[in-house]
Amino acid sequence: MNSIGTLFRLTLFGSSHGTCIGCVVDGIPPGTVIDEAAMAQDLALRKPITGIGTPRKEDDVVEILSGVVGGRASGSPLTIIIRNANTDSSAYEKLRDVPRPGHADFTALSKYGADVDIRGGGQFSGRMTAPIVAAGTIAKKMLQDIGIKTGAYSQAIGSVLDWEERTLDDMVHIRSVSPARAADVVIGECMVEEILAVAAEGDSVGGIIKCVCENLPIGVGEPFFDTLEGEISKMIFAIPGVKGIEFGSGFAASLMRGSVHNDIFAVSGNDIVTETNHAGGILGGISSGMPLELRVCIKPTASIRKMQHSVSLAEMKKVELQIGGRHDPCIVPRAVPVVEAAVAITLVDLCMRGGFFATPRVNEPVTPRVGGPSRHG
Amino acid sequence: MNSIGTLFRLTLFGSSHGTCIGCVVDGIPPGTVIDEAAMAQDLALRKPITGIGTPRKEDDVVEILSGVVGGRASGSPLTIIIRNANTDSSAYEKLRDVPRPGHADFTALSKYGADVDIRGGGQFSGRMTAPIVAAGTIAKKMLQDIGIKTGAYSQAIGSVLDWEERTLDDMVHIRSVSPARAADVVIGECMVEEILAVAAEGDSVGGIIKCVCENLPIGVGEPFFDTLEGEISKMIFAIPGVKGIEFGSGFAASLMRGSVHNDIFAVSGNDIVTETNHAGGILGGISSGMPLELRVCIKPTASIRKMQHSVSLAEMKKVELQIGGRHDPCIVPRAVPVVEAAVAITLVDLCMRGGFFATPRVNEPVTPRVGGPSRHG
Amino acid sequence: MNSIGTLFRLTLFGSSHGTCIGCVVDGIPPGTVIDEAAMAQDLALRKPITGIGTPRKEDDVVEILSGVVGGRASGSPLTIIIRNANTDSSAYEKLRDVPRPGHADFTALSKYGADVDIRGGGQFSGRMTAPIVAAGTIAKKMLQDIGIKTGAYSQAIGSVLDWEERTLDDMVHIRSVSPARAADVVIGECMVEEILAVAAEGDSVGGIIKCVCENLPIGVGEPFFDTLEGEISKMIFAIPGVKGIEFGSGFAASLMRGSVHNDIFAVSGNDIVTETNHAGGILGGISSGMPLELRVCIKPTASIRKMQHSVSLAEMKKVELQIGGRHDPCIVPRAVPVVEAAVAITLVDLCMRGGFFATPRVNEPVTPRVGGPSRHG
Amino acid sequence: MNSIGTLFRLTLFGSSHGTCIGCVVDGIPPGTVIDEAAMAQDLALRKPITGIGTPRKEDDVVEILSGVVGGRASGSPLTIIIRNANTDSSAYEKLRDVPRPGHADFTALSKYGADVDIRGGGQFSGRMTAPIVAAGTIAKKMLQDIGIKTGAYSQAIGSVLDWEERTLDDMVHIRSVSPARAADVVIGECMVEEILAVAAEGDSVGGIIKCVCENLPIGVGEPFFDTLEGEISKMIFAIPGVKGIEFGSGFAASLMRGSVHNDIFAVSGNDIVTETNHAGGILGGISSGMPLELRVCIKPTASIRKMQHSVSLAEMKKVELQIGGRHDPCIVPRAVPVVEAAVAITLVDLCMRGGFFATPRVNEPVTPRVGGPSRHG
């Protein structure tokens, strides 16, 4: 279904070439400041980047239809829509007969039948991630209010890898100015070159996004099934193009010895820390207090300018396929704010479930207490 | 929480050193054959392997407490328990003060407080996966009934990698006799050597499990959030020790070009296939009809014989820690049937949600139809 | 939370005096005809009735923002909004200090704090039921497509009771022209008189709505907890003003003997029927094939013109309260289409869960089958 | 499905004549005292009452299989089983052909097919409520710990009605000694006489149970759908034999004027109370601080000694039916502790969702805080 979350719940709707895309966010504590400027800023990070992105121009102006009064959440579901301005669907008509390789056209038609909306990818489009980013702004604000900070950046694009440890500050500040959403200016420039080279060939390239979350309190995550890794993964795989996810040491752990992989506990002031963080901040599905670290692999964009082959479903024969429309040669940079938003949304839900957001009624009762004997009669 | 699934729901209970471990499986169609011998066979694959496993001996005899009459599911929840026979908890007493590196002791104590049961890992123990295997036997039977086959094997243990394509037959037949649960006899022997070498040093080693599912019909998986990847990942990360998951090309996709990664559609008889399967059988979160392929990374066992360091929580100072108890130097082989079961359980739920199990009332009405005008008076 | 349903899920948003009210409906099978004219007709039944209703005029024009292409559901979530045109909130300002008796002002302020939107009842307003009616039009269409018919009518308003058995035809046809939404013209006129008499005193009156559903197949409802009664009740109590619900014989059963209450099975043609229907069409939480019958009690409107007392929360003293704004002296007639919609929405979800909607892929495969051996590499 | 609850979740299993009945309770805060003696006491209230109940003798000894260490909840799911000792299923064999009027035999066979277990009512049996009572003991303890008290009693059995206001003390103390579970000794004796008179005729009788909950804090209940009434109703209708539920004034509200029904707010010390409680302690689906009051109607027992008619499904003709087995002429007294348990379980879940149980980590951190910079490398 198109909803996710237990106490903080996101419901997505819309399609790439319909009237609009949007979402309903339920469970926002009343009084939470809803910062539309911050939302616009986060959405700007998701926009196509001049020179290396699709020429599709969407203003992505957020309209809030419900749930906010005077800039603050009212406690009822918050509804966001973003209108689709720039929809030329003509290029998509023949996809009903000739499905694009690497896209959901074929499976969507098979599952939903002829009425499914596949224009621009329909409900499978990367454009559906814009409302996730908008909801993520709210989630990040809620996390910040209890001291939790999140960040994400392009760690690899094609063969350009950034294996340095990056601070959250690097991520947040440099990536805003780096068109590749890198955490280092020079590496970001190399990444842009990689993308331009690939684009020149009419091809596309993938990459890896790293996401970090600091100051997460100990105890976030609900074993056995609603673990930190499990809940985050489910959310992350909703992002089109994701092929894998790993936490901490990840797949490298398969080659390590236990004596190396185990993070040794140590005392640091009044805190207990670990000397390494191969666990990625998670033990037994529960946050350990060390930074949460995860990496997400994004495949090369399925839509490429190069001539490809596919089949005509009507004629059941091989045909050539030249994809028109507007596409990014690399979606990794645009997926950076999406991954960050997705992680933040999941963390808010798990923090609420774990009782990490103090409720107003416990701390500061708003009104006098009702009570007294029953007088029903 | 300890439940997962929408229409086919698994609820786990128990702890490593309590009375028993077990599960409730809800949603099994009445009449489904419950094969206790097959369950025992699957559980045998999860047992410690003589020579390379822990000396803890558990008979793992399944008792079915409810939901089965005459060898067939009755439609009410099926409850399984496996009693814990071999529980010497004395070694775990000091862990409340000195948490083991790489284990959930520290986070469990922080989240749940002093009353949490951490003997033998408590509810975080790998032993909790035995009921998953038992439930998986039921799920695999249900999948087989509609033609779907699943298999899993150790693809890598430490530095011993098996990069050949393996057929489901290889997986299922060879892994039963290979102590390493490999799909190739010779590679399996190398894996055992690797494990023995590591064990001799008092250390442990990780690895990678590959799981494949064939004949999955097109259309399994519910976008936007309840995708095939998302639902499987959430389930897989419940397995202790998992650090990452990838589908199809996985993390390798970050280095590929779109023109290479895109799987080209082709006609094969009356079917549409793809020439490659980098997608791992999934497009847009929905099964494409090509084999579902996924890889899971397992970290080296956290419990090692080697001397380690940790802290005393009471004294807030560094201490030495020598872990006793009984442990596997490599849990990868034992996790193979668990991964297979976890995938099968998730697939059954998604197949039910997608309407791929015909319900008896549609095909073969059991009793005459009740009807007639209202005669309430 | 503001979502309900497992496979057919309704998410409500908006508030009485905000920008709009609306809902997201997830799980509509692609290809389902979305009849906006029928939606408008159902919404017209919920509008204030000239002469006996509030003078608040709302056009209640439905805008569909997503999920429909060419008049048919696309399989992605359907989003409906209804803009609030006629919102004079000035009368609601002092309610933050002086809560209205019988309203949610006091509990909403206590639970959500000062930021809650209580203008016009906010998210607790009866106006929130308009999107339920719109979603109900879709649900009723889906039920009709498999032969299930639903109807509801005012069975009692104040002391005017209609104890005759009414056919679904009576309900559907007469209630459209009866301002009281009665199933009998004369009784409807008496109800209107009752309402006018009460309104003349500045007071309000309650009543009872009966809902019937015919041709429900045997087997709808999921024991133990997701029973037909349980799921319907949960939904019905979301309607503001509901104080009770009963099925079949209902509370009268407390005075009956088992030999009278038991519905005797009988053969009728090829069907099995029962001679009476005290069970209201439900046995063991599952539909029996006899008509589903339920009754819902609605309290007298809380907002009355008469002078009342309340307290000033700021001064903690008794004060007089004269409620302005626009209100119905009886909401029973307007709640009739809401009850019908709520029941239909619940039935669709339970019918989907029970497999009573044939999925397109079972009956009419849309595209050729993908398949073939794995060629990953 | 057989699970209910969001943060405090109950999963039922077993059947009347299987090995056992039982449940899994997930979400119990670690450290909660699990009082097996109190459980036994509550279960004793549900046992057949000598003289007026079925001669089926079940010891109903609770075995706790998991989730408790040293008398306290460990934070992992708590599993309870109650073995079925006294199961003579021979009387149930012919029910597969001749369904009993008023029972779920017919609908269960239609929905689940021939494999369903209908011995003794199978999973539809009133016996399934024993684990609910056991789970209710835990829920009531949790509520008591934050000052909330619950009680229930037989308010009516057949024509014997108790219309007095009863205090919680009356309910709890008198009902334990009253075989009818009445809140008044004399009325209880009249109820027993009513039951005996009906039993002498080989017939059965129904009744009404009232449940009250005091000191519920203001703010429990989650609009729009997860209201106090909605969540309680869904749970209550899982109890076999329930035909209706009403809150506060209930169905009587249909005959009242708004000026009478509205509960006027008043100041009482530092509290705000209402002068009457027609709302039953709920406004807008949220607790108001006044006592929660609800009434549940139970139908006369379907199993009666009197000769009845039914049909043979095999021969499709009318047949006579004499029901053997062991049955209560009135299940109202035995349902009293079940209603109380069901309400308590629902309230705990809603209190947890509303943040009314302070979590240990907020108030009293158990261990030092982990933290420090990322040292992944």
Word description of this protein:
The first copy, chain A, has nine helices and 18 strands. In chain A, the strands form six sheets. Chain A has a five-stranded antiparallel β-sheet with strand order 1-2-3-7-4, with helices on one face. Mean pLDDT of chain A is about 90; it is low at about 360-375. In chain A, helix 1 (about 35-45) crosses helix 3 and helix 3 crosses helix 8. In chain A, a hairpin with a 5-residue loop joins strand 2 (about 10-15) and strand 3. Chain A is globular and about 70 Å long. In chain A, about 70% of the residues are buried. Chain A has one domain: 4-Layer Sandwich (Chorismate synthase, AroC fold). The first copy, chain A, has about 375 residues and is of the alpha+beta class. At the A-B interface, strand 1, helix 2, helix 6, strand 11 and helix 7 of A face strand 1, helix 2, helix 6, strand 11 and helix 7 of B. Strand 11 of chain C pairs antiparallel with strand 11 of chain D, so a sheet runs across the interface.
